[in-house]
Amino acid sequence: MKTIISALLLAALAACAPANRDSAAPDTARTAGTTATGYSSTTSSSVSNPATPTPAPAPKASAEENRPMEYYKDKVAELHTSAGEIDIRFYPDAAPNHVKNFIDLAEKGFYNGSKFHRVIPGFMIQGGDPNTISGPPSTWGTGGSGKNIDAEFNSVKHKRGIVSMARSSSPNSASSQFFVMVADAPSLDNQYSVFGQVTKGMDVADKIVNAPRDASDRPNNPTTIDKIVIRDAKPDEQGPTPK
Fold first, then answer.
1. Residue 76 β-bridge partners
2. For the chain, how long is the longest CA-to-CA vector?
3. Residue 144, Cα to own-chain centre: how many angstroms?
4. Of 152, 195, 198, 147, whose CA–CA distance to 171 is shortest?
5. pLDDT number for residue 63
6. HSE-up of 13 (CA within 13 Å, CB side)?
7. Pairing of strands 84-90, 118-120
8. Exposure pattern of 87-102 as b/e (b: 16+ CB <10 Å)?
9. Residue 73 burial (CB < 10 Å; 0-12/13-18/19+)?
10. What local confidence, expressed as pLDDT, does residue 38 receive?
11. Which residues of the chain have pLDDT under 70?
12. Amino acid 59: pLDDT
């Protein structure tokens, strides 16, 4: 499920994409789990190009599934990481189901203790794989939540600061892995589902992406997401979804 943009870069896609292997961004050759496309090294097809994600089992109904979409408007996620705080505003108008999926998982504590397992300078950082909490590194990039989200490709461009979902070569394989762009990557546009943007902490993202890593773009000392706090957006964090 390492799906980040491996395939995207499947070669680029394949190598760098974030894929979902669960990755979505650049794993360019990995699958990004998803494959981001166009990226280099490990771009596979999903920005995670991590490897192709395993089909998720049918999820059980939960209380969140009955929440009205109004609940997800004007929300911000504070990612408290071992490297600093990254705040993300959401775009429910562009990708409502991806926004709902991320917020629901975050409020359950799903991401707590997970790591940014894939970092590609000049491209993106990818996280959200539960396997990074306690699983062996060989499985990082292949995990998910047990539920897949259908693609919601939209007109928002993959520019620096954008947050998008990693996936495998299948467009509808996004699950829990996501990636944050540290540079513009037009090759990912309309290939991955953008669902938010960083409003604070790009300096933290830059610190994460520039940390020492191995040949597989895995950081030597991965940054951990200690917890995610979902709160109402402040006035300066609101506004129309970019076109």
1. 89, 231
2. 44
3. 11
4. 152
5. 65
6. 18
7. unpaired
8. bbbbbbebbbbbbbbb
9. middle
10. 37
11. 1-64
12. 52
What string of DSSP letters covers 145-204? -S--B-----S----TTEEEE---SSTT-B-S-EEEESS--GGGTTTS-EEEEEEE-HHH
Residue type, 2: K
pLDDT for the residue 240: 86
Provide the CA 3 distance to its chain's centre, in angstroms: 10
- Report the candidate in 142, 130, 136 with the shortest Cα–Cα distance to residue 224: 130
DSSP per position, 75-105: EEEEEEETTEEEEEEE-TTT-HHHHHHHHHH
Question: What is the pLDDT at residue 15?
Answer: 39
Structure tokens at 88: 């993300």
| DSSP secondary structure letter of residue 113 | T
Say if residues 109 and 227 touch (Cβ distance below 8 Å).
yes
Cα dihedral sign for 230, 25, 59, 72?
A: positive
